[in-house]
């Protein structure tokens, strides 16, 4: 893991069930997590299964920091009611706001968001990031919502936004970090 002067919190949003994703989704999601950690940034996820969990696995493989935002109000509820993992997280924030509230807190806590595959919850996290002008990277070819975002944006009749589309996980993370740096400079 690099030691950066600038350390960003990067959220990975994606499908908790990967059956709708591309065939190599496990490696792609892990690679995104590894790249975030190698660059010295902190991975944020919804503390769930599937793509977010795989990204956390990748980050932990290279000694990265992984923080999860749970829909549950306690560890007990996280494990028993939601049946979500705890093993790949350095810290879990128990929001107690179910999935919708969790998605808002998670996304608003991030400096940038990466969309990988995804279903309706991922679309919700995308729209929160979009509306709050948080830099977004989309891993094209990963399936699900990620592969529909270009079309959604073209039909949304909104001004050009800070959304990066890329097929290579390493390049996606690098481009997103550059966009985050650019946005931070504009805001200071």
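Q: What amino acid sequence fits the structure above?
A:
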């Amino acid at each position: 893991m690099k030691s950066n002067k600038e350390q960003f919190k990067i959220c990975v949003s994606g499908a908790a069930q990967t059956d709708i994703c591309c065939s190599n989704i496990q490696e792609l999601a892990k690679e995104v997590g590894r790249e975030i950690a190698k660059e010295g940034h902190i991975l944020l996820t919804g503390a769930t299964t599937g793509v977010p969990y795989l990204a956390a696995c990748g980050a932990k493989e290279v000694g990265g920091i992984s923080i999860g935002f749970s829909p549950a109000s306690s560890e007990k509820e996280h494990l028993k009611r939601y049946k979500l993992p705890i093993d790949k997280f350095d810290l879990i924030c128990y929001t107690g706001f179910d999935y919708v509230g969790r998605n808002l807190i998670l996304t608003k806590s991030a400096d940038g968001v990466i969309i990988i595959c995804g279903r309706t919850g991922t679309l919700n996290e995308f729209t929160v990031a979009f509306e709050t002008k948080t830099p977004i990277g989309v891993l094209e070819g990963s399936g699900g919502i990620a592969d529909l975002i270009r079309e959604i944006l073209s039909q949304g009749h909104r001004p050009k936004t800070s959304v990066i589309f890329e097929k290579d996980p390493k390049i996606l993370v690098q481009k997103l970090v550059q966009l985050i740096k650019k946005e931070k400079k504009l805001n200071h």
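Q: And what stands out in the fold?
A: The longest strand covers residues 9-14.
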